[in-house]
Design goal:
Spore Coat Polysaccharide Biosynthesis Protein SpsA, Chain A, nine-stranded mixed β-sheet, 2 domains, globular, alpha/beta
């Protein structure tokens, strides 16, 4: 008997991309699917689109809820899933027609508990092919956890899960976390997994063209949430007995990345928020004890980031903001030049 796979799609105001997403899921070569859509209180035409698709496709199971966030939407879908396996798809993304078939085939043939694949990253700068999972041999839990924490591998999509593991261990997304909540889910699932595998193909298509998504609007307000996530990650990694120095290295990189991102945004938005507000924001960032705990260990070989290291470690806040503004102007100019060359102007 062909195993059933539950495809979970949370939806919030995605009318522009939703049809393309649903078409790609409905065109899957795997023949036994249930497509669980949870509308998280959309105010655009998303619901009308879903209802039209549901009329034509019996595989679609539809739930509506008042806006509670993507974690609650996914949790509702998990609670109502009947498939032996679960995959996640975001409503503004699409998937290759063999996405589920190839992930499932790998899972069954290798008796793995978690299987990952690569993805195509589509943005205004073109298509980039990426994977964090370049392994062809049996790997340890610690090795897998490090791969997930170091790159972009902590996302829910691009993977297939066993529903039995999720249900038996009551693994859910934390509704109180609104950034990197998927990373916590993947880590919790991984520590209950015995084996991991990968499909060396780019089967998921990640859409960066949706500029209204949370991931494209990270702000200083997310810092407290991000630190909570980091504390969660530390706790999980420590519970597995991973080497303390490796944990420190992983956490330093995560803290450094978010600090650089937030400082960079102060420079990018300098004309909008003003210099005094930007200075105050950076001072707040650098004064947080959890950040101070890792700040002296920040390191980078990136040409643009090296000056950040010196300025941030030395608390040269004003100069740091001006540097960020300069770098953003330079990058913007280079990106425009690249786009002009691509279209032959």
């Amino acid at each position: 008997m062909v195993p059933k796979v539950s495809v979970i799609i949370p939806v919030y105001n995605c009318e522009k991309y939703l049809s393309k997403c649903l078409d790609s899921v409905l065109e899957q070569t795997h023949p036994n699917l249930e497509i669980i859509i949870v509308n998280d209180g959309s105010t655009d035409e998303s619901e009308s689109i879903i209802i039209e698709y549901k009329k034509k496709h019996k595989e679609i199971i539809y739930f509506y809820q008042e806006n509670k966030g993507p974690s609650e939407a996914r949790n509702k879908a998990i609670a109502n899933a009947n498939g032996e396996y679960i995959v996640f798809v975001d409503a503004d993304d699409t998937v290759n027609e063999y996405y589920i078939e190839k992930l499932l085939k790998e899972m069954v043939s290798t008796n793995s508990d978690l299987v990952c694949c690569g993805y195509k990253d589509i943005s205004i700068y073109g298509v980039h092919y990426h994977t964090d999972f370049n392994f062809k041999r049996k790997i340890s839990l610690h090795y897998f956890l490090e791969m997930v924490c170091e790159g972009t591998g902590g996302v829910l999509w691009g993977k297939i899960y066993k529903r039995e593991i999720i249900q038996n261990n009551n693994i859910r997304l934390d509704k109180n976390i609104f950034m990197s909540e998927d990373l916590i889910f993947v880590l919790k699932y991984a520590i209950h997994s015995k084996s991991f595998s990968t499909v060396q193909e780019y089967l998921y298509i990640y859409n960066r063209l949706n500029q209204t998504s949370i991931s494209s609007n990270i702000s200083i307000d997310y810092l407290e949430n991000y630190i909570s996530v980091c504390r969660f990650i530390e706790k999980i990694l420590n519970s597995t007995g991973l080497n303390k120095n490796r944990i420190k290295k992983l956490m330093t990189k995560k803290i450094q990345d978010v600090v650089f991102t937030l400082v960079d945004q102060q420079g990018k938005n300098l004309k909008v928020i003003g210099l005094e507000a930007a200075i105050e924001n950076v001072k707040i960032i650098l004064s947080i004890s959890y950040i101070q705990k890792y700040k002296e260990d920040f390191t980078s070989n990136d040409l643009y980031s090296i000056p950040y290291l010196f300025l941030i470690k030395g608390n040269f806040v004003k100069i740091c903001i001006f540097y960020a503004a300069f770098i953003n102007t330079l990058k913007s100019f280079k990106n425009k030049l690249t786009r002009r060359k691509k279209v032959g102007l």
